[in-house]
Specification:
Distance between the termini: 53 Å
Oligomer: single chain
Number of strands: 11
Helix content: 40-55%
Strand order of the largest sheet: 1-2-4-3-5-6-9-10-11
Radius of gyration: 23 Å
Shape: globular
Number of helices: 19
Strand content: 5-15%
Largest sheet: 9 strands, mixed
Length: 511
């Protein structure tokens, strides 16, 4: 189908999609047949998780006593009799049956983050509380073990590339974005309209019904907080206990992912530079914050002149290199900061044109970002974001935004404001979700979170008067519960999951 015809088709089905979420409730109330009955009433075929001897995740799930299943869902909820997909889920069943709450569905963020593993990791921090829930991991539609999507890209860095230093470099980015969008259109144009957060939320409700439950409890991180918000909007009254960690408000969810977070990331970079300067004897990056930042500038400048050679196989250019800095700024834990410092030390040598060999973990990251190894993940993330909030702004608008942001945010501005394949995507079939509800949820956020800004948590708290906000002040951390080692946070969340009672007022924990 051509782009123009598909846009017309999207417009025609948008009104149907807007009410698809409530079709079941309306049909039931009126006595009409449920058009989703075959999905809601499907038999869940639980089975072993391991797909073979080399399936490490599957073996770990099996060893923990978990089981797995594939849930059938419609590709297009406006056409429930049409094409179907499978959504892969895992389950670690409740052991404390006397106090069983029900299913707790888990999402690790992304967009396009596989979450099948999460019953294993979250059961550890939950402790005895885990026994009260069926912990449900879900690979969202087109992600992980669910029906796949891969546009056949030859790089995995598409969602977070830098515009580069000058207009010529930016024009390269325009060409890359246009080419990547075209590849997705040619490979999966028939399904791209349905790779959206709203449809993933609808899949969640099919899972709820197939499990025979009236409501879901939910724990979502980062993008997963947005997914949870969309679910509550589409399916009011079908949530029990909700924890959103690293809260992303709908109005701050955008197709460049980092737009609006430039200042927070630049602040995190300066804080890391101070940390590294205090350990100059270990890393040799500079004895003061200014010297460490000068080292970073030297690395970036060298890549602008000529890509950095890392081993025999990899060349890091100015478009991909900033990811390694930004990717390392999501946590202020010493372990994470040390990993970034080690990488920067190697990059500094490469910037001096010394021969360097990447350690195993860095080599894996380079392969993922620079080759087709990361194609599926990048395709899925891009398809979700573009399917949600793509906008045609004109290629010149991105360059102007990059130039305006560069002085204040020299590292992050050219990434957060760069053009993406969404500029060349078909317009979304549905408008983004707008919250006009009130949900009693526990919101967990750090004041210095460089990914999902604290202001987003405050906005959702204001939107949901029945919710409560648990704040970790002074932390530059993305993802807190079970990930930051903060006993105060872990206890507060577990108390809520155990009792279902929110605190009387907002609370704070020390970093």
């Amino acid at each position: 189908m051509s782009t123009s015809l598909r846009i017309k088709a999207f417009a025609a089905c948008a009104a149907v999609l807007a009410v698809a979420a409530t079709t079941t409730a309306t049909a039931t109330a009126s006595g009409d047949p449920d058009p989703f009955a075959r999905f809601h009433g499907q038999r869940v075929d639980w089975h072993a998780c391991a797909l073979g001897a080399d399936d490490e995740l599957g073996r770990k799930l099996d060893a923990a006593g978990a089981d797995c299943a594939d849930i059938t869902v419609p590709l297009d909820y406006a056409d429930p009799g049409g094409r179907t997909l499978t959504v892969a889920i895992s389950r670690l069943q409740a052991t404390d049956t006397a106090h069983r709450v029900g299913p707790l569905l888990l999402n690790d963020g992304g967009p396009a983050g596989p979450s099948l593993h999460m019953p294993l990791t979250k059961s550890e921090v939950m402790g005895e509380v885990a026994g009260r829930y069926d912990l449900i991991g879900m690979d969202p539609r087109f992600v992980g073990r669910s029906t796949p999507l891969d546009c056949g890209w030859d790089l995995g860095s598409a969602p977070l590339r830098s515009a580069g230093a000058d207009l010529a470099a930016y024009r390269e980015e325009v060409a890359v974005a246009r080419e990547l969008a075209g590849r997705c259109e040619r490979a999966h144009g028939d399904v791209l309209p349905y790779v959206t957060t709203r449809n993933t939320a609808r899949d969640m409700d099919v899972i709820r019904a197939a499990l025979g439950e009236d409501a879901l409890s939910y724990l979502g991180y980062s993008y997963g907080s947005y997914l949870g918000e969309v679910y509550t909007q589409l399916f009011p009254g079908r949530t029990d206990r909700m924890v959103l960690d690293g809260v992303n408000s709908p109005e701050r969810y955008n197709h460049t992912l980092l737009r609006g977070a430039e200042a927070a990331n630049e602040a995190a970079l300066r804080a890391w530079a101070s940390w590294a300067a205090a350990r100059h004897g270990t890393y040799g990056l500079g004895a003061t914050r200014a010297e460490v930042l000068a080292t970073v500038e030297h690395i970036l400048g060298a890549a602008e002149e000529e890509p950095l050679r890392i081993g025999e196989a990899y060349r890091l250019d100015e478009h991909v290199l900033p990811f390694f800095f930004i990717g390392g700024l999501g946590s202020d834990l010493d372990e994470r900061r040390a990993e970034l410092a080690g990488t920067v030390r190697l990059l500094a040598r490469a910037a001096d044109r010394e021969p360097v060999e990447p350690p195993e973990e860095l080599a894996g990251q380079l392969e993922f970002l620079l080759t087709g190894a990361g194609s599926a993940a990048a395709s899925q993330m891009t398809a979700i974001v573009c399917g949600d909030v793509a906008e045609r702004r004109g290629v010149g608008s991105y360059w102007r935004a990059v130039e305006e942001s560069r002085e204040r945010s020299p590292l992050v501005g050219p990434v957060a404001n760069n053009i993406t394949p969404c500029e060349f995507w078909d317009r979304p079939a549905e408008a983004p979700s707008v919250l006009d509800n009130d949900v009693p949820a526990l919101l967990v956020a750090a004041t210095g979170d460089p990914r999902t800004l604290y202001a987003g948590a405050e906005a959702v708290r204001a939107q949901w008067p029945s919710s409560r906000l648990l704040t970790v002040r002074g932390a530059r951390q993305h993802g807190l519960y079970g990930e930051y080692g903060n006993a105060c946070v872990d206890k507060r969340v577990n108390d809520y999951l155990r009792t279902g009672r929110l605190p009387a007022h907002d609370l704070s924990c020390e970093a």
